[in-house]
Amino acid sequence: QVDVLESGGGFVQPGASLSLSCKVSITDFDLNRLAWYRQAPGKQRELVATIATGGQTTYAAFVEDRFTIFRHNGKKTLTLRMNNLRPEDTGVYYCNTVLADISWGQGTQVTVSS
């Protein structure tokens, strides 16, 4: 059973934009505070952004107003819109709850390089 399915990654040049999507197949999607995480090569997985049930959002300091997280409760999807991408944004991006209490998906690879 796959609880999360991330998509939308790709290979882009610095300054480009990408929109990541995650389908979350849990029954209580709308009751969970959700998050995007990322893992760069050789580094620990880190939190990128969160969105509460009421839509309140938080972002890691490195985001610097470049990313926006959305949720669609009816479709059980989570989106991360990323603008002005930098090489240091390269990594595998994952979605989960803020407690990381559902099975991790395969993630979606984002590579930013000139």
| Number of H/I helices | 0
Q: Class by helix and strand content?
A: mainly beta
Strand content: over 45%
Query: Biggest β-sheet: count, sense, barrel?
Result: 6 strands, mixed
> What is the residue-averaged pLDDT?
95
Widest sheet: strand order? 2-10-9-4-5-6
How many angstroms does the end-to-end distance come to? 38 Å
Q: Outline, from the CA principal axes?
A: globular
Give the number of DSSP strands. Answer: 10
The helix/strand series, from N terminus to C terminus, equals EEEEEEEEEE
Estimated radius of gyration? 13 Å
Uncertain segments: none
DSSP helix fraction: under 10%
Give a verbal description of the structure.
The strands form 2 sheets. A 6-stranded mixed sheet has the order 2-10-9-4-5-6, with no helix packed on it. The chain has strands spanning 4-7, 10-12, 18-24, 34-39, 46-51, 57-59, 67-72, 77-82, 91-97, 108-112. The protein has 114 residues and is mostly beta strands. The chain is built from no helices and 10 strands. The protein is globular and about 40 Å long.
Q: Can you summarize this structure?
A:
The protein contains no helices and ten strands.
